[in-house]
């Protein structure tokens, strides 16, 4: 089946093997025109490999790749209508910024007047006009990455591919360039596929996130949907900083309806909306640190006592690490309400904000 007209990039049953090692496994992914998709996952999950397959830098073992409705599975990278921005800036050190931007266009035989127009447009969008006569050695890391983005931008392509472009920058520069990339997408409305292991980048930039593990897409959805309704324990633990709290226990069906128990803890689930038919047995309850309340238990369907082990001031809020029975957990609270180390506190949460996972690790 061919890609539909409003699909910018379509990946169909894509597999990649290195010898006997399966790196990507029968992946299917349709990316709409103008969509910003983030491939997110830990090192070795296959996200950069998938990006390189789309770019034509790796030959796939099976499947098909369409860009703008054209089957490009075996096309050369230069013929795919893509622009790629790498983790390393890969700039020519002996050339000025202007010559770095124009080099690929000159090789492709683009008329001189057109080259000038494209460089002027890219420089304006990326705010690098004062830097055009400088060489890369005279630029900061953020300026170099802007030039690297500009080199893709001047090609006037349909699809931009970003391979961890901000990972070499410090935290402040990452934050600044993240905003600029989002503005760039809003202004251009081109399709963008962005690889990162940084969940903050993924959550802030993406229209949809594809969370990957072991060469398989675990969940593909809008950032808030993945945050609130992770399909399995891996996705739940990977998204969020700090990650979701997990409490091992059992799912039981009693007189008052379903409940989750762990040692002396009992969490009522009478209002919980199950995605599939629950079965009594081992289960894991997940609750995010910011969904737990501290010492203000009025109206909580569930509350319990916890002992504070560590307090981490974070500025506007504070992370509190403690123990709930035999289970470790973290709570995010406003800094002015932070408890002291060694204090016993009451914690509570609404079970509707929790995620329940069965013995197989999938969401209940």
UniProtKB/TrEMBL annotation:
Subcellular location: Cell inner membrane
Pfam families per UniProt: ABC_tran, OB_MalK
Gene Ontology molecular function: ABC-type transporter activity; ATP binding; ATP hydrolysis activity
Domain of life of the organism encoding this protein: Bacteria
SMART domains attached to this UniProt entry: AAA (SM00382)
InterPro entries: AAA+_ATPase, ABC_transporter-like_ATP-bd, ABC_transporter-like_CS, ABC_transpr_MalK-like, ABC_transpr_MalK/UgpC-like, Mo/tungstate-bd_C_term_dom, NA-bd_OB-fold, OB_MalK-like
Protein name (Swiss-Prot/TrEMBL): ABC transporter ATP-binding protein
Protein species of origin: Mesorhizobium hungaricum
């Amino acid at each position: 089946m061919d890609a539909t007209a409003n699909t910018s990039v379509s990946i169909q049953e894509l597999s990649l093997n290195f010898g006997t090692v399966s790196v990507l496994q029968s992946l299917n992914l349709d990316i709409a025109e103008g969509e910003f998709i983030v491939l997110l996952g830990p090192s070795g999950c296959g996200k950069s490999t998938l990006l390189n397959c789309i770019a034509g830098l790796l030959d796939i073992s099976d499947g098909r790749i369409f860009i703008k409705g054209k089957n490009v599975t075996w096309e050369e990278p230069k013929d795919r209508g893509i622009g790629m921005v790498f983790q390393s800036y890969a700039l020519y050190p002996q050339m000025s910024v202007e010559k770095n931007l124009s080099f690929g266009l000159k090789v492709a035989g683009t008329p001189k007047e057109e080259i000038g127009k494209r460089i002027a447009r890219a420089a304006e969008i990326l705010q690098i006009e004062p830097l055009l006569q400088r060489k890369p050695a005279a630029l900061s890391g953020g300026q170099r990455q802007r030039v690297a983005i500009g080199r893709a931008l001047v090609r006037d392509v349909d699809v931009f591919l970003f391979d961890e472009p901000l990972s070499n920058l410090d935290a402040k520069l990452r934050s600044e360039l993240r905003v600029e990339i989002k503005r760039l997408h809003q202004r251009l409305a081109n399709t963008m596929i962005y690889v990162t292991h940084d969940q903050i980048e993924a959550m802030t930039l993406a229209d949809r996130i594809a969370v990957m593990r072991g060469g398989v897409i675990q969940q593909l959805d809008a950032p808030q949907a993945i945050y609130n309704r992770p399909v399995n324990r891996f996705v739940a633990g990977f998204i969020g900083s700090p990650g979701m709290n997990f409490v091992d226990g059992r799912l039981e069906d009693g007189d008052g309806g379903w409940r989750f128990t762990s040692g002396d803890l009992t969490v009522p689930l009478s209002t919980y909306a199950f995605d599939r038919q629950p079965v009594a047995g081992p289960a894991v309850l997940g609750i995010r640190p910011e969904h737990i309340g501290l010492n203000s238990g009025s109206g909580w369907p569930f509350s319990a006592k916890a002992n504070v082990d560590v307090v981490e001031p974070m500025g506007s809020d504070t992370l509190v690490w403690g123990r709930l029975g035999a289970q470790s957990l973290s709570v995010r609270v406003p800094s002015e309400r932070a408890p002291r180390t060694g204090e016993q506190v009451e914690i509570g949460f609404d079970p509707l904000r929790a995620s329940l996972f069965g013995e197989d690790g999938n969401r209940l």
